[in-house]
Amino acid sequence: MPSDTSANLYDLTRPALGALLSGWGFGPYHRDQLWTALYRRHATTFDELDGLKPELLRMLREHTRLGQLATHHESFSSDGFTHKLLLRLDDGQTIETVLMRFKGRATVCISTQAGCAMGCVFCATGQMGLSRHLTPGEIVGQILHVNRILRASGETLRNVVLMGMGEPLHNYEHTMSAVDVLVDALGLAMGPRFITLSTVGVVPGIRRLADEERPIHLAVSLHGATDAERAALVPAGRRWPLDELMDACRYYSEKRRRRIFFEWTLISGRNDTAEHAHTLGQLLRGMDAHVNVIPLNPTVGYDGGPSRPESVRAFQDVLASYDVPSTVRQRRGIDIDAGCGQLKATVERRSRRSLPTSA
Ligand code: SAH
Ligand code: SF4
């Protein structure tokens, strides 16, 4: 039996799997056969990897494991669209994964870290602090977990958004390995254009993403269009001021020739007035940009509230006057704590009060 510290096969990209196997004397044919078995079958036990050479299977059983995530808690929104999962990792950490099924198109929102170090004041994950980075296999494992759920009802996954717990560009290597696994043509074969990565604005990460060949979508969380206003909500704004961030965004959009999405969580009275919208319009004017405005999901650790619908409309009208398009993203499943980090916070509060949680 392999020990818990043995290699999780789902942590490996196909080239890395090839390197492991070639050390044991198996070539690319065996690598690809194993890869297809892993990702087409979503194997959770070695018994499901039939068809492999017996010697290879023996080595795999001895030296590797098939990491998988366990459901710690789950809930469904009253509108039936949102299925929120709190998944347990091997060391007992829990992370959130949200499956949204809308008009036959399933989207999953996945986590890249357990907690987050960035400390955005309104975000339940930021209020927890960082526990640790996720491994590539734990990021990919969330996709395999929801794929198993979707398969049971004959549905397929269309979109992946890296907008769950954590800052993906603070865990750059593992996140990009996971993206490489998701898009690998012999495995899950997801279209890179159906993958969106959201960042709080880690400037070196945005520049690195621009220089690499991964045609995924980029979303940048702004929430403030002056350094002082942004830093009050997003402490990372002090490390990477707006002029550096916007330079990196322009670099990305020129190099990759892609539109950038900007996220703006609308907080009543804090960043939702016409004046705020004018400042944002001036910042983004002339760029290939699209703004997603998201009325705040209130969290226990922050006393702000969501903007009223008329303020949201007025905010969008001002942006439109600068030719900056915008869309309101309602956070589906508010009744099940579907904001980033909120289910985990609620479940932890409940278990501190010693109430049972359903599995
Ligand atoms: N760390 C990345 C991705 C995860 S957060 C980032 O910050 O972009 C994904 C999005 O949810 C971000 O735009 C974040 O600001 C937003 N968000 C977090 N908590 C929220 C809340 N309580 N209400 C509304 N949006 C929230
Ligand atoms: Fe981290 Fe994103 Fe939450 Fe900010 S909003 S604390 S970057 S997860």
List strands and helices in order, with pairings:
Blueprint: E1 7-8, H1 14-23, H2 28-41, H3 54-63, E2 64-65, E3 70-76, E4 82-88, E5 94-102, E6 105-109, E7 113-115, H4 124-128, E8 130-133, H5 136-152, E9 157-162, H6 172-183, E10 195-199, H7 203-211, E11 217-221, H8 227-233, H9 236-239, H10 242-256, E12 260-266, H11 274-284, E13 289-295, H12 309-321, E14 326-328, H13 342-352
Parallel strand pairs: 1-2, 6-9, 9-10, 10-11, 11-12, 12-13, 13-14
Antiparallel strand pairs: 3-4, 4-5, 5-6, 7-8
Helix pairs in contact: 1-2, 5-6, 7-10, 11-12
The chain binds S-adenosyl-L-homocysteine (SAH) and iron/sulfur cluster.
Structure in words:
The chain has 359 residues and is α/β, with parallel strands linked by helices. Helix content is 38%, strand content 20%. It is built from 13 helices and 14 strands. The chain has a ten-stranded mixed beta sheet with strand order 3-4-5-6-9-10-11-12-13-14, with helices on both faces. A two-stranded parallel ribbon has the order 1-2. Helix 7 packs parallel to helix 10 and helix 11 packs parallel to helix 12. The C terminus is likely disordered. It binds S-adenosyl-L-homocysteine and iron/sulfur cluster (SF4).
